């Protein structure tokens, strides 16, 4: 099916949809015909994304929603609101909400460690569980859950012991979910970005960015849209025989 229409009549949920990679995913899914629920902890940024989504394709209706992915209560409310509005759960979910709180292992506080695990790892668990439960309960024939991990979950990164652990965790979570949910027609995959220009990496000092770029075989940072393209592929039936996989989007950084 042509990429331009392959998501028509699919209801999709994107966490972290207010910024960076999540916003680019919302744009890409909408451009392929999906209805998109833009979920973010910031109402303002979720609404900003909502305002730039294509909405002229068959049956499209988007919404913005506030959610804190680290809170089960907040996610339950979100999934209920979605089902009230659309009379169905999302059959595509992209977990893109994520945070960093960097520090060296020797000085990282317990709070810094816990918060990053709560948002990145527990958040992915809670959203994946809630969406899968809703899909199974209504007997939906298929679903695709995509979680944005990171290449640093595989190779580690100085100053990111909490973040690297959370991102290694989402890969294990995803592979397990893939094994358990295959019999319900739900596929679960990860996308592992390398260094992508977003508000998250805007915080990284220029010196470090220059060094990182020199390590990337393709010689540049990636764009959010380049990660979004892979998320859209995994969301669509073009990847119908792919589950439990992690696809690196790194310009070759840290390849085997
Ligand atoms: P970003 O621009 O900071 O976007 C992340 C979004 O998630 C923000 O809108 C953020 O809101 C939201 N968020 C934070 N905590 C949340 C919570 N508890 N519940 C709901 N939403 C929450 O970062 P990004 O670079 O696009 O990152 C997107 C994903 O890609 C993350 O999982 C990140 O770890 C991953 N990733 C990024 C890179 C990269 O190089 N950029 C590389 C590898 C992986 P606030 O801004 O209000 O906090």
TrEMBL record:
SMART domains per record: PKS_KR
Record keywords, A-Z: Fatty acid biosynthesis, Fatty acid metabolism, Lipid biosynthesis, Lipid metabolism, Mitochondrion, NAD, Oxidoreductase, Phosphoprotein
GO MF, one annotated term: quinone binding
GO biological process, one term: fatty acid biosynthetic process
Residue span, Ketoreductase domain: 10-196
Main subcellular localisation: mitochondrion
CDD domains, per database record: BKR_SDR_c
Gene Ontology CC terms: mitochondrial matrix
Pathway info: Lipid metabolism; fatty acid biosynthesis; Steroid biosynthesis; estrogen biosynthesis; Lipid metabolism; mitochondrial fatty acid beta-oxidation
Domain of life: Eukaryota
PANTHER family, per database record: (3R)-3-HYDROXYACYL-COA DEHYDROGENASE, SHORT-CHAIN DEHYDROGENASES/REDUCTASES FAMILY MEMBER
Subunit-level organization: Heterotetramer with CBR4; contains two molecules of HSD17B8 and CBR4.
Entry similarity comment: Belongs to the short-chain dehydrogenases/reductases (SDR) family.
Record-given protein name: (3R)-3-hydroxyacyl-CoA dehydrogenase
Organism, as annotated: Lates calcarifer (Barramundi)
């Amino acid at each position: 099916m042509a990429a331009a229409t392959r998501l028509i009549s699919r209801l999709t949920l994107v966490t972290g949809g207010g910024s960076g990679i999540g916003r680019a995913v919302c744009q890409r899914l909408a451009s392929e015909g999906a209805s998109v629920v833009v979920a973010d902890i910031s109402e303002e940024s979720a609404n900003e994304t909502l305002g730039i989504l294509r909405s002229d394709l068959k049956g499209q209706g988007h919404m913005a929603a506030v959610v804190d992915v680290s809170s089960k209560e907040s996610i339950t409310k979100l999934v209920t609101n979605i089902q009230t509005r659309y009379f169905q759960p999302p059959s595509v979910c992209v977990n893109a909400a994520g945070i960093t709180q960097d520090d060296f292992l020797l000085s990282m506080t317990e709070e810094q460690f816990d918060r990053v695990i709560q948002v990145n790892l527990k958040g992915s668990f809670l959203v994946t569980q809630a969406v899968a439960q809703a899909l199974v309960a209504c007997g939906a024939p298929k679903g695709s859950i995509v979680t944005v991990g990171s290449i640093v979950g595989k190779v580690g990164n100085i100053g990111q012991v909490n973040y690297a652990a959370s991102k290694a965790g989402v890969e294990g979570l995803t592979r397990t979910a893939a094994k358990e949910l295959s019999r319900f027609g739900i596929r679960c995959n990860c996308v592992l970005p390398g260094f992508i220009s977003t508000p998250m990496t805007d915080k990284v000092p220029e010196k470090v960015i220059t060094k990182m770029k020199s390590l990337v075989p393709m010689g540049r940072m990636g764009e959010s849209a380049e990660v979004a393209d892979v998320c859209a592929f995994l969301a669509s039936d073009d990847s119908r025989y792919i589950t439990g996989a992690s696809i690196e989007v790194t310009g070759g950084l840290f390849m085997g």
